[in-house]
Design brief:
The complex is a heterodimer. Chain A is α+β, with helices and mostly antiparallel strands. Chain A is built from 1 helix and 5 strands. Chain A has one domain. In chain A, about 15% of the residues are buried. In chain B, strand 1 and strand 2 form a beta hairpin. Classes of the chains: A alpha+beta, B mainly alpha.
Chain lengths: ~110, ~180
């Protein structure tokens, strides 16, 4: 979004992406240009605020997820340790099975 | 008068213990059976080690509580009380007589995963109401799916313990005999 000089006058242009290409749209000079500029600034502020809120939500969610994942990791490891100690084993993330008596020493 | 323990030495031992524990957890999750056996022995030899895991449980639950009702207003306090009551209700429903420390840990993991699902579900619904963009809706949907998968995994882990590690009770007449552990 910018004011551009054409001869002695300045005119407001709005840029937008259409089909991957940046296309400039002529708005006008004077009052029309000023109003369009204000509208664009307001829209930009709203969009920035939404983006910041979304980012804050993501950060907070990720921070909480870290604590949960640490707990999950410990719980999975303790479960595995308890099952192995009780004589179970699993092959390639399959179901837990009791180790056969002939393999018990392994 | 007995000599005071050197605080630095204690801290080093604790740091060493946590580093070793972290190493063992990583090893077990990567499929190392020897590490699993070592951790089992470690837990039996040092019951105080469970304090570390209890710390993880409360840290996970607190972080979700803070996220769901962050403000210290009356409404926030009300929501937190309501959530605590709901957590207690669910904890009671999941608990069984003679639960081991491992089962308690797994129950708290389920509760933590449940809060994660609750938050992800609420934020997805809120985004839908606000006509979120496709990318945002997709992100919220993925987050919800992941949270639901984690909840299922947590429930599955508790079910595995209850199925495989509980003593099998055989009733012969009036006698109850525990035949296996």
């Amino acid at each position: 979004m910018a004011w551009e000089r054409r001869g002695d006058q300045t005119y407001y242009y709005r840029s937008r992406k259409i089909g991957g290409r940046v296309v400039k749209e002529y708005i006008g000079g004077g009052l029309a240009g000023t109003l369009a500029e204000r509208e664009d600034a307001m829209r930009r502020r709203t969009r920035d605020a939404e983006r910041a809120a979304l980012q804050a939500d993501r950060d907070a969610f990720n921070a909480a997820t870290v604590a949960h994942e640490e707990l999950s990791r410990a719980a999975d490891a303790l479960l595995t340790a308890a099952l192995i100690a009780a004589g179970y084993h699993r092959h390639d993330r399959g179901p837990w099975r009791k180790r056969h008596a002939s393999q018990a020493g392994q | 008068m007995p000599a005071k323990p050197d605080s630095k030495a204690v801290a080093t031992t604790r740091a060493d213990m946590e580093a070793r524990l972290d190493e063992l957890l990583r090893g077990i999750n990567a499929g190392n059976e020897r590490a699993a056996k070592e951790l089992h022995e470690y837990c039996r030899a040092m019951p105080a080690l469970w304090d570390h895991f209890v710390g993880l449980e409360s840290s996970a639950l607190d972080s979700w509580k803070k996220l769901i009702c962050p403000e210290a207003t009356n409404r926030g306090a009300f929501t937190r009380d309501h959530m605590d009551a709901e957590l207690d209700k669910r904890r009671k429903a999941l608990c069984a007589d003679g639960d081991s420390q491992l089962e308690t840990l797994l129950i708290n993991r389920i509760l933590s995963a449940w809060m994660q699902v609750m938050y992800a579900d609420a934020s997805y619904a809120q985004m839908q109401r606000q006509d979120g963009t496709f990318a945002r809706m997709e992100y919220a949907q993925k987050r919800l799916d992941r949270a639901q998968r984690q909840l299922l995994r947590a429930i599955q882990a508790l079910a595995t313990v209850r199925r495989l590690l509980r003593p099998v009770q055989v009733n012969i007449g009036q006698n109850q005999i525990n035949v296996a552990q």
